Amino acid sequence: MLGTSLREAAAALRLGQVSATELCQKCLSFIKESSFLNAYITVTEEVALKQAAEADKRFSQGQPLGLLDGIPFAIKDNFSTCGIETTCASRMLKGYIPPYNATVVQKLFDQGAVLMGKTNLDEFAMGSGSTDSIFGPVKNPWSYSKAYREKRAVNHHDAKKESDWLITGGSSGGSAAAVSAGTCYVALGSDTGGSTRNPASHCGVVGLKPTYGLVSRHGLIPLVNSMDVPGILSRCVDDAATVLGVLAGHDPQDSTTIQDPFETFKLPEKISMKKLCIGIPKEYHAPGLSTEIVTLWSKAADMFENAGAKVVEVSLPHTPYSIVCYHVLCTSEVASNMARFDGLEYGHRSDVDDSTEAMYAATRREGFNEVVRGRILSGNYFLLKQ
């Protein structure tokens, strides 16, 4: 791939060092070479090549649409894409073709970005490993690095045949793996309780969950309406900031988005840490926390201190209740949101037709996996207890 960052690739496109079509073809070749990672559910090769050709035409006329013109990107398969299958990695939506684009997808298209494909995920974004997909698990690109294989005493050349691989984290594991493997410069995921940040940390890329309401959720098939946020995965912080500047802002189709005009920003080349205060919650040193994590945590704190930041211990006394609270809120909204998948309007429909109730039950039993069914049942239980 030409350059490691979005900005480097964008500069090369404007200087004519590479064409958008060449960049697109290179990414497509990386997708094919890394297909064993199972990062993509749908590769949109025809769409990508057409968009790249249109970008080249604009560049030849000196009229690029924006900084992202000609830049390859991928998107998690729970965002609606007009004319392109959107499955949420579930049998329930297999074959579903949305008639519209999610707002974030449309904003990237309006900038001239090139869609490489739809990425794999835990079914309906319910998971933290990207292993619960009807299309199979996503494998971490670092599983196949020479250094990791040598550490594990595994023949690097036989890596693709090995069953010994690392998870990507989830639920946006496909997007994280796609960026990490060099198949695109940026990818969108969704984040409810860590689904962008978790796989980013596993795959060695940057993961950003914007503030709720800063980026439109319109077209994002909901998990938890009150917590879902489109997330950004990139190779560097500057690229994440660039994409956020494109995506952020009010959307008339999402009443939860910010009302005030959003002013785009650019990160300074040098950031001073001297006025920064970093709090480390003492409750986060929970029983069972591995020594490796504690060491890395201390290393990060030392890096902040050495850079001039002030690192202090703080207390978040309600930490022990956070997971329980999240579980109740999450499953309750899941139960409500998943009610729309009944086999009537769209998606999978069971052949059972003894009665309407029997058809509903069979459709949902066949269409949802065990994880999704479990959250629906838990959520309905909590809602009944209110």
TrEMBL record:
Entry annotated with the keyword Ligase: yes
Taxonomy, superkingdom: Eukaryota
Biological processes per GO annotation: glutaminyl-tRNAGln biosynthesis via transamidation; mitochondrial translation
EC number: 6.3.5.7
Pfam families: Amidase
GO molecular function terms attached to this record: ATP binding; glutaminyl-tRNA synthase (glutamine-hydrolyzing) activity
Catalysed reaction, written as an equation: L-glutamyl-tRNA(Gln) + L-glutamine + ATP + H2O = L-glutaminyl-tRNA(Gln) + L-glutamate + ADP + phosphate + H(+)
Statement: the UniProt record of this protein carries the keyword Mitochondrion: yes
Keywords: ATP-binding, Ligase, Mitochondrion, Nucleotide-binding, Protein biosynthesis
Stretches assigned to coiled coil: none
Domain Amidase: from-to ranges: 34-145, 167-384
GO cellular component: glutamyl-tRNA(Gln) amidotransferase complex; mitochondrion
Active site annotation, chain numbering: 76 (charge relay system), 171 (charge relay system), 195 (acyl-ester intermediate)
Class in the EC hierarchy, top level: ligase
Localization, UniProt: Mitochondrion
Family annotation (PANTHER family): GLUTAMYL-TRNA(GLN) AMIDOTRANSFERASE SUBUNIT A, MITOCHONDRIAL, TRANSAMIDASE
Family: Belongs to the amidase family. GatA subfamily.
Function: Allows the formation of correctly charged Gln-tRNA(Gln) through the transamidation of misacylated Glu-tRNA(Gln) in the mitochondria. The reaction takes place in the presence of glutamine and ATP through an activated gamma-phospho-Glu-tRNA(Gln).
Subunit: Subunit of the heterotrimeric GatCAB amidotransferase (AdT) complex, composed of A (QRSL1), B (GATB) and C (GATC) subunits.
Record protein name field: Glutamyl-tRNA(Gln) amidotransferase subunit A, mitochondrial
Organism field: Pelobates cultripes (Western spadefoot toad)
